[in-house]
Amino acid sequence: MGQSVNVFVKKTVLFMILAVLLAGCSATKSSSGNGSSKSESGDSIKVGLQAPMTGDNAQYGQDMKNGVELAFKKINSEGGINGKKLKLIVGDDKATPTEAVAVVNKMIMNDGVKAIIGGYNSSPTLAAQDVSGPAQVLHLNMGASPDLSKTGNKYLFRVILTGSVYVPAVMKYMSEEKKVKKIAALFENTDYGITMYEAAKTSAKDLGLEFAATEKYNPGDKNFSAQLSKIKALNPDAVMVVGLYNEVALIEQQAKQAGLKVQFFSPDDSMYSKQLITLGGEAVENHIFASMIDLNADTEEMKEFKKLAEENNIPAQANSAIAYDAAMALAKALEEGKADAEKSRDALANIDYKGITGPIRFDKNGDRANTPMIMQVQKGDFVVIKQSE
């Protein structure tokens, strides 16, 4: 999720921005984050969720929705934000930039949201923030692309760790603890996959490791036999696979069928879901990855989250936990800033919130900087094998 959006998408984004700005000349203040908006005119404050609710990434969007809804339910049951209830507006970005621009524009122009949580994927987020930024709407995302740190959008914040933090940690572990020397890379052909691989290549050089193979696939692919055959012929010590859990599960199943018996690992926790184990079975046993969260952590925050999830019949997934933390941090900022765009933005920029994913603080680029832990699939569960430093 690190390369530029194509020309067509950029033109679409610019058109949408122009629409927002022109509408502001004739519409009420509800189309921007300044002053009073229709989201504040009643007894609620509207917050948008930009996420993939349909398509191959739909499960991630559902996990995010679950987490935000849990947080809002807790907040509203305790009186809301300065006496007003939080109301969630869901927009399906279908994991595409053009859809992301459309849904974010609608949420701002038609629904009057004061903030947006999402997207999950980087390319849609990069496109959408070109609309939310000029509209002065807070935007908390879960994209991994380094480009999200370079937008200059002071209303954009990232609630996950970045590849610049994840990748060196897992590469160092693989070098020092697993003693690997030759690695094969298999990554999705997206901004996310490419930038993660580029970061891993830099780390490999620093650690004296070699990438013997560089294979790609497209999201939604089902057959990886060609890539795995090439990798097997090179006899690597490990395979770094960068992708989402549905494809990671298929890749490792097909690797096992092909007789490729090496250590698989990933740079981040995109596969941290029980679905990885459900779909992959024994094939994903021993998979290693860096993570910002341990769902088995014995903390009061985690206990409360799990209790809420159980009471509402919602799976306690990693992405739900991250979205929950994003919603809780956002609510704190909106409360302190009284839902004013500038005051809430400043409150979020200076927040120090203890979440279930650890402390939430942001640097000057709006990024989190916690160090990750290293996790592994062991006997059908996720186990911490190295604590964060």
Automatic annotation (TrEMBL):
It comes from the Bacteria. Residues 1-26 form the signal peptide. Residues 28-47 are annotated as: Disordered. InterPro entries: BCAA_transport (IPR051010), Leu-bd (IPR028081), Leu_Ile_Val-bd (IPR000709), Peripla_BP_I (IPR028082). Belongs to the leucine-binding protein family. PANTHER family: LEUCINE-SPECIFIC-BINDING PROTEIN, PERIPLASMIC BINDING PROTEIN OF ABC TRANSPORTER FOR NATURAL AMINO ACIDS. This is Branched-chain amino acid ABC transporter substrate-binding protein. It comes from Neobacillus kokaensis.
